């Protein structure tokens, strides 16, 4: 493939300057996420933590997994009567900021509504660890869970991945990279960019990975990625930041350049790297790799987001390859809208979208609604206006959910779940 231009034309700053700036924004983001978690109902803290030594990345080290488990997890561990499906989550922050507990509200919702164990990954971040370390840590996280499935009481035949923003990118790139480790594909399959062994081959896999307690062959046989839940992901770094910004309909709602420059300079190192690498730009992955993704992809985008256009292109491409893409464009909101630092109340509309994603996860996991879950797809707020329209054909019901203006945000928001309507002027759209 021909090399593409970097996402920004700005000359890269020294790495030490990126380190200083990243540390500064990590502190401020930590305060913001603390305020976000203060809103009632407060999300739970992780149930327990595991430290994972790295094996896939040539840069050795370790990272943590934060576990959120159902109420009956301890009882089931004693009884050994069932195993739980598992959702592996990747936080956002441009591969530079953020931590695994940022998505505690999402994790808690999945635990309650799906009855799954949720594992949020504290992958190593840039600029300390540039591309592709985060993706390789994501692969290591899934391999670790597969190896320790029995002791963790998880069912590795029912695994989904989720992620937000850069974590949404990882929810796509980690399964692509995982193909080179565990997915049983033909041994002569093409290996892109020389970054992983050909799927189905053990060539170039670290000996430590091959000598683990659970052999690679057994992991291949048992591990099943059932679904991807990607929230406003970055999918195509061959598109420059300037080009991305040109597609955004609300310039005042764009992610500020101070952040995007930090993210790109920190993670995309060296800046001359090939931006079409599928482990960076999953929307550019070859058809053969894309075909190996899970059959079910639940994709959320935001109307006032510079990443909307590439998210729609990814949706179309996945559908052309025969994937079942459940797509939602949330009108009237910017990138990261569900993480507003308002300590008084959660952002209106977020719970509704989290619940709709959980409904899809229950479907792919073949799970019934757990006791104590919210049976409705949409939870009404005191000031919310809810419309429900009948679906047509064999698809799910068509829903439209319009929320009033909140104290901190973004105008009116509504639920859109459509494959062929791209109108950005509507504040109500159809679910299909």
UniProtKB/TrEMBL annotation:
Residues 412-422 have a biased composition (Low complexity). This is Alpha beta-hydrolase. PANTHER family: ALPHA_BETA HYDROLASE FOLD-3 DOMAIN-CONTAINING PROTEIN, TRIACYLGLYCEROL LIPASE. Residues 395-411 have a biased composition (Polar residues). Residues 87-337 form the Alpha/beta hydrolase fold-3 domain. Transmembrane segments: none annotated. Residues 423-432 have a biased composition (Basic residues). GO terms for molecular function: sterol ester esterase activity; triacylglycerol lipase activity. One of its GO terms (biological process) is triglyceride catabolic process. SUPFAM superfamilies: alpha/beta-Hydrolases. Keywords: Hydrolase. The keyword Lipoprotein does not apply. Residues 372-432 are annotated as: Disordered. Residues 377-387 have a biased composition (Acidic residues). One of its GO terms (cellular component) is cytosol.
């Amino acid at each position: 493939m021909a090399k593409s231009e970097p996402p920004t034309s700005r000359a890269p700053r020294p790495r030490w300057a990126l380190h200083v700036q990243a540390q500064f924004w990590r502190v401020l983001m930590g305060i913001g996420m603390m305020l976000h978690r203060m809103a009632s109902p407060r999300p739970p803290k992780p149930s327990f933590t595991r430290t994972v030594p790295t094996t896939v990345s040539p840069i050795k080290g370790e990272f943590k997994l934060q576990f959120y488990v159902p109420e009956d997890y301890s009882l089931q561990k004693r009884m050994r009567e069932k195993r739980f499906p598992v959702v592996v989550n990747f936080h956002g922050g441009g591969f530079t900021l953020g931590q695994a507990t940022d998505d505690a509200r999402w994790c808690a919702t999945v635990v309650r509504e799906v009855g799954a164990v949720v594992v949020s990954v504290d992958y190593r971040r840039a600029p300390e660890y540039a591309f592709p370390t985060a993706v390789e840590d994501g692969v290591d996280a899934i391999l670790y869970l597969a190896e320790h499935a029995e002791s963790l009481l998880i069912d590795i035949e029912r695994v989904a991945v989720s992620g937000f923003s850069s974590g949404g990118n990882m929810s796509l790139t980690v399964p692509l990279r995982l193909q080179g480790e565990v997915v049983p594909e033909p041994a002569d399959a093409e290996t892109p960019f020389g970054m992983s062994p050909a799927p189905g081959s053990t060539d170039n896999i670290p000996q430590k990975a091959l000598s683990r307690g659970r052999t690679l062959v057994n992991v291949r046989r048992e591990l099943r990625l059932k679904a991807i839940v990607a929230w406003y992901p970055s999918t195509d770094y061959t598109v420059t930041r300037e080009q991305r910004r040109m597609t955004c309909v609300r310039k005042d709602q764009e992610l500020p350049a101070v952040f995007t420059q930090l993210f790109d300079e920190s993670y995309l190192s060296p800046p001359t790297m090939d931006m079409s690498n599928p482990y960076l730009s999953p929307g550019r992955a070859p058809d053969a790799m894309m075909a190996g993704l899970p059959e079910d992809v639940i994709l959320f985008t935001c109307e006032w987001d510079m990443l909307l256009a590439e998210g729609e292109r990814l949706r179309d491409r996945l559908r052309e390859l025969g994937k079942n893409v459940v797509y939602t464009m949330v009108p009237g909101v910017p990138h990261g809208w569900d993480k507003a630092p308002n300590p008084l109340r959660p952002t209106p509309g977020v719970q509704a979208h989290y619940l709709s994603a959980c409904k899809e996860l229950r479907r792919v996991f073949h799970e019934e609604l757990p006791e104590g879950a919210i049976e409705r797809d949409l939870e009404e707020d005191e000031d919310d206006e809810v419309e429900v329209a009948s679906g047509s054909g064999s698809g799910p019901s068509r829903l439209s959910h319009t929320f009033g203006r909140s104290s901190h945000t973004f105008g009116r928001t509504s639920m859109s779940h459509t494959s062929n309507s791209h109108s950005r002027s509507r504040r109500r759209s159809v679910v299909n």
